[in-house]
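Structure ticket #2291
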Amino acid sequence: MSSEVRKLNPTDVWNKFADLNEVPRPSKKEKRVIQFMVDFGKALNLETFTDPIGNVIIRKPASVGMEDRKQVTLQSHLDMVHQKNNDTEFDFLTQGIAMFVEDDWVKAKGTTLGADNGMGVAAIMALLESSTIKHPAIEALFTIDEETGMTGAFGLESGVLQGEILLNLDTEEDDEIDIGCAGGIDVTAKRDYSEKPLPRAVQGYTIEVKSLKGGHSGMDIDKGLGNANKIMNRILYHCSLNHHIRISSIDGGSLRNAIPRESTAMVVVYNNQESDFLNSFKTLAHTIKSELKLTEPELHIEMKPVKLPKKVMGLGSQEKLLGSLYAAHNGVYAMSASIPDLVETSNNIARVLVAEGKIKIGCLTRSSVNSAKMDLAFALKSTFELAGFEVSFSGDYPGWNPNPNSAILKLLKTKYESLFKEEPRVVACHAGLECGILGQNYPEMDMISFGPTIRGAHSPDERVQISSVQKFWKFLLTILEDIPKKQ
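Resolution: structure written out below.
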């Protein structure tokens, strides 16, 4: 399946990407890809080692004539987000990604592609392997677990890295140069509930919300995409209010950094209200689909009768669950006052799980302003606590403060304009990049981030643009050729 990808230009980069995508590499289960990368570095007879947390560092001496240039740290993360369509049979723990080419894009069959951040990893591998590319001394840093906690970046100790300049290859628009990013924090609400026997004279139904686009909960949060958890809650809230349905279970969303694409709930409705319930459901589903017809044209909201469940939620717990989820903010919370068109603060209600007497709600709150991030986190905490939840914060990571006077930024802008005859967009992004964390232990390192164009990251619609990879590769090689001399 990857044979057509391996023929693309630049072949060195695409072959390394194909090699990487044959290795399962879910977050927190990177043992195989760590060993893959260590074997790769040692096979090239380059200095290769792992730090105590599991990050892989590979060093390559400068090309002849480039020994007097500043050392560059090239950084990308090894793990990838694992998402698949419901009708796709795939085991991320054992299978490699099935890729194919469509027009100017490389895609995967029903799963995430791993271009985030596999394209950055592949480009660094191609540089390390090349015997013809001119470059200063290179230090490759491959971090682990970026997608579910950035534990690799957090665990990297001071004194390990030697580079003076860090090029992070983990952005998704080829005309952008990133100089800042948002920080984030996980907000998790939990509570128990009492399960009750089924009422008499009821019919069981499953409700499905599916075929939403999903996407990156930072980069795509401002696109007006549907959140399956919020849509499901809206349906359940109104059906509960008007037709006294009782909830047995809910299972919506998956990963904290992915906008939820699907949710399933099992409910029961009294026989004497069944007809009105079905009509109301049909009307509400039509209303929601009409509201989202431009951004979510494939949205499906379906219901079908099923075998009765064994138990349902207690009515008081059900009311508190639905009310708190209705009140909890989802989406853009505030736009930046200092950077045009930048989302400052947002929240993604990423996971809702109701089963066997336990409720768990998982959110990822982001902001480029730490105080605003915590303000929204405490607003969510208060909302859920009023409904009897215990709320915890975890995975707090800092943003990356922009430095518009960065020397490496000036170099990248000059090179971009010379190569492509237009000005790049110098931006801060609403995603979480590792630069902010790395900068805590390496405050003197001059950092910048760029990459090829990727669409639909963190969803099965993920794809990377072939012509953009060519542009990105040309840009990267030109930058390395002109890294300034040591002072």
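Closing remark: The chain is about 30% helix and 30% strand.
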